[in-house]
Amino acid sequence: MSALRRTASIASNELRRLLRERLARTLGLLGASLLLLSLGLGTAREAQTAERQADYAARADRDWHTQPDRHPHRVVHAGDFVFKAPGPLARIDWGIESQVGRSVFLEGHRQNTANFSDAALSGGLLRLGDLSPSLVVQQWLPLLMLLAGAASLAGERQSGVLATSLIGGARGTELLVGKASALWAFGLLMAVPAFLALLWVAATQPSLAARAAGLGASFAAVLGLAALGTVLVSSLARSVLGALLAGVVAWFALVAVAPRAVASWAELTLPAPTQAEVEQRIAAALTRIGDAHDPDSAHFAAFRQRVLEDYGVSRVEDLPVNFGGLVMLEGERLTTAAIATEVDRQRDAWQAQVDRATAFGWALPTLAIRYAAQAFAGTDLAHHRDFLDQAERRRFATVQALNELHATRIAALNDREQKLDASHWAEIPRADIALPALRSAAPALAATLAPVGVWLLLGLLALAWVGRGLERRA
Amino acid sequence: MAVIDLVPRPPALEVHGLVAGYGGAPVLHDVSLRLQPGELLAVLGGNGAGKSTLLKVLLGLLPPQAGRVHVFGLAPSTDPVAARAMLAYVPENVAVYPHLDGVENLRYLLGLAGRRPDETTIALALREVDLPEAAWRKRAALYSKGMRQKLLIALALLREAPLLLLDEPASGLDPEATDQLAALLSRLRDAGRAILMVSHDLEATSAIADRYVFLAKGRVLREGTDLAALGADAAALRTLYARRADLTP
Does residue A302 form part of some domain? Predict the structure, then answer.
């Protein structure tokens, strides 16, 4: 009998044990039920958010299009809302989305932060952490696998059946690999509801198929690591109780404590500017630029001279366009650049914190998988930042389109008294927010997933190494 | 005309000058014994005599520190796969997979050895060891020790292992089950199998063993063909066992 067939036979026997033993079967049903519950909660939660957002978006759209005849600069200050629609993968891993908000108020001369997060809108319960399907797969299924699989080797050693298997022809490494494969299959069976949900997403929205596949692969990887870890602990422990204790301690350290500790450590060692500091810096930068509403400020005096030269005239009154509108265009360009510098400084600092925590994935693959899953689901910091960037691009395009109307359709004389016909507002660009292509996240994902691959390989090598000495511990 | 086998056959088991143990301190000191096909050898000794250590060496689970061990000419320490193919082992607690029924246990354990017997062959083996037919498809978790022993001996038959090693086979068996086991082992011995059983129970082995080796503190203390022939020594040993006294060669 080939080694592969023996390993498959051992795996099949172990899976049969897991499916026949009452304790393991109960744990399996518990895991699948927990996952179904979290999927139900996630779906209901996202449906509620989607409905609320659709309502707000419709209202914002109606408010925009029902604006009366007015001066375009009044429209600039009236503002607009933009929303990030909840994607179907967010119901499986909602990452940081429940904390950061998915709508931004867009207005002239300002770059607002996202607001109306689920956590902010809740009574505070969401701040305690919530039960996402991804969390169940990454945290609770490994614990259930540990409880079901702790006896896989330690129990056989205690009963003596391990010696019977070894003497009967099984090799140590085959036993460990077979049992780890069976435990992995057991974990995958518990995670079937999550995989079915991912399949449904891929089937109904083919553009998300690659993301769904990546999320599924992340889940398979974390369950694979859990299987390898459990079998290793079980093979090294002297008793089932010893395996359980060692496994629970390892789970507590690697899954429950370390990821949070690493995130806190990254925040402490790489502090990001607070919102107050950002606001202060922006105010100082805008003071240096001057007031765009004041055409006589030093900066804008130089701008006026340049414009006059460009148009070959000597007086503002002789310009073929409204100089006030040009000032608004220039002012928005300058303030947008100045604000972006400060905002980017803050967001770069956040990203640096995430990068530092992600780098810890070489020591802590559970953390690497957590970040990878969020990236595949489109709910990590990079995707949130992309949403804010898209919102800012839309704000800038909208404001500048209105400023162009100001410059070209509003006469300089009695500027503030004039109004444009309401039909103009429909022509202003108001781009929707789109989920970026997965390839934009590919470099970060590769960096995040590399440690996971290495840890899986190390786990297999450890099985082979421990398996060779298994006979002496039989 | 009788056929004379001119090719010398290796003994089923040959142990010569064996020293073995865990870490630095040996448990077995200069142990030598020999077992031929068709012979039933009982290795007797009290707690700490070295019986379990001897079995581990024979099974290739513990390498010898000195001396030679051969199973049909094969060394379990250097060629464990080939040596184990020649033997079957029935441990003291007779562990089988509790989640499998009797037939499933046999199929799985035989599969590990690369054997795929049909239903008829399995049924013949189970009948040979007198395992009640009603138990064949019951989970082994419900089996008594005697039934588990029969199952593992059936496994040995199906594996066609010419050497059978049993650890404390009579411990925990009621008198009827002990008699059944003795009858079964006698049949196997008569069919040409070599059987080595280790035990601390003189009474249980006296009815079936062909030869006895007494171990004490890791050394061979006495060796003989039957208890009666050992005479006063056997009586003295029995008394010493009862007192759990220190046996010194």
Answer: no
Query: Is A191's Cβ below 8 Å from some Cβ in B?
Result: no
Close Cβ partners of B24 (under 8 Å, ≥ 6 residues apart): none
Verify whether the Cβ–Cβ distance A160 to B114 is below 8 Å.
no
For residues A467 and A474, the answer to whether their CB atoms sit within 8 Å is: no
Q: B45 or A188: whose pLDDT is higher?
A: A188
Average pLDDT over every residue of A270-274? 90
Residue B37 has pLDDT above 60, yes or no: yes
Task: Report chain B residues whose CB lies below 8 A from the CB of A164.
Answer: 89, 91, 95-96, 109, 152
Which of A159, A165, A14, A157 lies closest to B88, judged by CA? A165
Taking CB atoms and an 8 Å cutoff, what residues of chain A touch B92? 160
Nearest CA in chain A to B80: A167
B126-163 burial code (b ≥16 CB/10 A, e <16): bebbebeeebbeebbeebebbbbbbbbbbbbbbbebbb
Give residue B51's domain range. Answer: 37-61+79-243
Segment B173-204, tens digit of pLDDT: 788 888 888 888 998 899 899 999 998 877 77
Report if residue A83 sits inside a domain: yes
pLDDT tens-place string over residues A3-40: 899 999 999 999 999 999 999 999 999 999 999 999 99
Which residues of chain A have a CB within 8 Å of the CB of B114?
A: 1, 169
Chain A residues within 8 A of B112 when measuring between CB atoms: 1, 6, 9-10, 165, 168-170
In a domain, A188, yes or no: yes
Flag whether pLDDT at B139 surpasses 50: yes
Number of folded domains that form chain A: 1
Tell me the whole-structure pTM to 2 decimals.
0.85
Q: What is the mean pLDDT of residues A429-455?
A: 86
- The answer as to whether B214 is a domain residue is yes
Among candidates B62, B92, B112 on the partner chain, residue whose Cβ is nearest the Cβ of A169: B112
Q: What is the CATH number of the domain that holds B125?
A: 3.40.50.300
Eight-state DSSP code of residue A318:
G
Cα–Cα distance, A346 to A117 (Å, whole number): 19
The residue of chain A nearest to residue B96, with distances taken between CA atoms, is A161
Side-chain-side CA neighbours of B79 within 13 Å: the count stands at 12
A402 touches chain B (CB under 8 A): no
Q: Which of B97, B116, B167, B196 to probe the A interface (max A CBs under 10 A)? A: B97
A22 touching B, CB under 8 A? no
Out of A113-127, A290-304, A305-319, pick the least confident: A113-127
pLDDT at A430: 84
The Cα of B187 is separated from the nearest Cα of chain A by a number of Å equal to 23
> Chain A closest CA to B238's CA: distance in Å?
30
Mean pLDDT (chain A, rounded): 88
Is B94 a domain residue? yes
Looking at chain B, list the stretches that DSSP marks H as alpha helix, in order from N- to C-terminal side: 51-58, 80-85, 102-112, 119-128, 145-159, 175-190, 202-206, 227-230, 232-243
Q: Which residues of B touch A472 (CB under 8 A)?
A: 61-62
Tell me whether residues A167 and B87 touch, CB distance under 8 A. yes
Task: Choose between B207 and A270: higher pLDDT.
Answer: A270
Rounded CA separation B103/A84 (Å):
60
Domain that holds residue A111: 3-290+321-473
Please give the tally of structural domains in chain B: 1
* A169 inside 8 A of chain B by CB: yes
What residues in A contact B85, CB-CB < 8 Å? 169
Structure tokens at B226: 């039957």
How large is the average pLDDT for residues A430-442?
84
Of A17, A156, A472, the CB nearest to B61: A472
**Contact between residue B105 and residue A165 where contact means Cβ atoms under 8 Å apart:** no
Flag whether pLDDT at B244 surpasses 50: no
Q: Please report the ipTM that was assigned to this predicted complex.
A: 0.81
In this structure, is residue B215 part of a structural domain?
A: yes
Report the pLDDT averaged over residues B14-40.
91
In the structure encoding, which two tokens stand for residue B161, read together?
Answer: 């292992």
- How many A×B Cβ pairs under 8 Å? 71
